[in-house]
From TrEMBL:
<protein>
    <submittedName>
        <fullName>Acyl-CoA N-acyltransferase</fullName>
    </submittedName>
</protein>
<keyword id="KW-0808">Transferase</keyword>
<dbReference type="Pfam" id="PF13508">
    <property type="entry name" value="Acetyltransf_7"/>
</dbReference>
<dbReference type="InterPro" id="IPR016181">
    <property type="entry name" value="Acyl_CoA_acyltransferase"/>
</dbReference>
<dbReference type="InterPro" id="IPR052523">
    <property type="entry name" value="Trichothecene_AcTrans"/>
</dbReference>
<keyword id="KW-0012">Acyltransferase</keyword>
<feature type="domain" description="N-acetyltransferase">
    <location>
        <begin position="24"/>
        <end position="257"/>
    </location>
</feature>
<dbReference type="InterPro" id="IPR000182">
    <property type="entry name" value="GNAT_dom"/>
</dbReference>
<dbReference type="GO" id="GO:0016747">
    <property type="term" value="F:acyltransferase activity, transferring groups other than amino-acyl groups"/>
</dbReference>
Length: 267
C-alpha cells in the first residue's frame, strides 16, 4: 500500500457512478484547509450517539458546533508533532481528512521535530498560544458554549483519560508511536478505498520508523482498521461503550513488519 511520487492516488473506475471514477488526490493539509476539514468532521459525526450526547443543541447553534470541529483541527495542526492530510476530488473539494501525531522521545521522533526547524517551531508555539487565547475570548464574548452538555463533556473527558492511561500510558513500550488522531470521510465517498489511502500515509511512516500506530476506533471505523491489519487492544470503558454501539469500537494497534510484539497484550 503506497502513494505515487506526486502524492496522487487513483480509484478504480466504475461505470455505475461518476464519483467512483474520479481521481482522488491525497496531499498534505495546510492551515487554510482547517475550516473545510472541520466542516467535514462535523458532518460525518453529526448524528452519532456520542455527538448527540455531547452536543445536544448543535442544530440550534450550528455555527458553534462547526467551530468546535474547526478549532480542534487547527489546534492539532499547530503542534509540531502533527501531520495532517486531506483527500480531494478532481474539483479540489476536500472530501476527507486525517491527522496523525508522532509521539515519544525516541531518536526518530526528535529527528522529525528537528527537521521542522527552530524558526517554524517557534512560530507554531506562538501561534498555538495566540489561537488558544483568541478562542477563549471569543467563547467568553458569546456567553459561553450553547451547544454542549457540559456535564457530558467532562464525563467523556474523564473516560478518555482512563482509557488513555490504561492502553497507552501504562505501557512504556507503546510511548513511541504514530497516533491517528482523526480520520473522517464524507458518507458519499466512503467504501471506495479512500480511507485506506489516507491511512497508507501513516503506515508507511510507521514502517520506516519501526514504531507502532495507535488509535481509538469508532464502532463504524473498526472494520476498516481491522482490514488494514490493526488489532483490538480492548473496548472503551463500559460507560463509554454504553454511549456508542455497545461492544463495538475501542483501542487498536498496528505493528510494522519485523516489529517485536509485546509478550502480552494485557490491557
Amino acid at each position: 500500500m503506497s502513494l505515487t511520487a506526486n502524492g496522487k492516488a487513483n480509484l478504480a473506475t466504475s461505470p455505475k457512478t461518476s464519483i467512483s471514477s474520479e481521481p482522488i488526490i491525497i496531499r498534505r493539509a495546510t492551515l487554510k484547509d482547517a475550516p473545510e476539514m472541520g466542516r467535514v468532521g462535523g458532518r460525518v459525526y453529526y448524528d452519532t450517539p456520542l455527538t448527540s450526547w455531547l452536543w445536544p443543541h448543535r442544530a440550534k447553534y450550528h455555527a458553534q458546533y462547526e467551530r468546535h470541529w474547526i478549532e480542534r483541527r487547527l489546534a492539532l495542526m499547530l503542534n509540531p508533532r502533527n501531520e495532517s492530510y486531506v483527500a480531494c476530488s478532481s474539483s479540489g473539494q476536500i472530501i476527507g481528512a486525517a491527522q496523525f501525531a508522532r509521539l515519544g522521545d525516541d531518536a526518530g521522533a526528535w529527528k522529525r521535530i528537528r527537521e521542522i526547524g527552530v524558526l517554524r517551531r517557534v512560530f507554531m508555539w506562538v501561534a498555538a498560544w495566540v489561537f488558544w487565547g483568541y478562542c477563549k475570548v471569543r467563547w467568553w464574548l458569546e456567553g459561553g458554549d450553547k451547544t454542549q452538555n457540559k456535564e457530558a463533556v467532562e464525563t467523556f473527558a474523564s473516560w478518555c483519560r482512563v482509557d488513555g492511561e490504561r492502553y497507552w500510558g501504562s505501557h512504556e513500550e507503546r510511548a513511541s508511536r504514530w497516533h491517528c488522531q482523526s480520520l473522517v470521510l464524507l458518507p458519499e465517498w466512503q467504501g471506495k478505498g479512500i480511507g485506506k489511502k489516507l491511512m497508507a500515509v501513516v503506515m508507511e511512516k510507521a514502517q520506516r520508523d519501526g514504531v507502532i500506530i495507535g488509535l481509538e476506533a469508532s464502532a463504524k471505523g473498526e472494520g476498516l482498521y481491522t482490514k488494514l491489519g490493526f488489532e483490538l487492544l480492548g473496548r472503551f470503558t463500559g460507560e463509554a461503550g454504553a454511549v456508542e454501539d455497545v461492544g463495538q469500537g475501542g483501542m487498536m494497534i498496528w505493528y510494522p513488519e519485523g516489529y517485536k510484539k509485546e509478550a502480552s497484550s494485557e490491557m
